[in-house]
Amino acid sequence: MASDPLSQDLLYERAEIHKSCKSFETVINTLNDYCEAAGSMLALQKKLARALRDTASLRVTGAIPANALSASANIFDIMSDIDGKFGKIADKECDSISSEVKKWFKKLAKEEKVHDERISNANARI
Question: Low-confidence residues of the chain, pLDDT below 70?
Fold first, then answer.
């Protein structure tokens, strides 16, 4: 039976693990920033749709420009609805990933502490 290299316990240097953790932290923070930016875009889309609709309803706006402004407002309304749903899903996923990574970091910290204690005990015996 061939052994799968991924199923074996691999040993990594502590510095490599910490570098990997830092990389995960950067990904999580960037994903969180992305979710915040998506929320800001949602607010801007709604605000723009409202402004377009208000401009289209002015009496000085001609019929053709009013129709174009109304159509644009409808497009931004629909985009904001879609982006709102996407934003909720992205926020949920971001929170889920963050909590899982936080649990993993805590577990890693405990394992490092146990490892350090074992090394200290072994050095004390020597």
Answer: 1-8
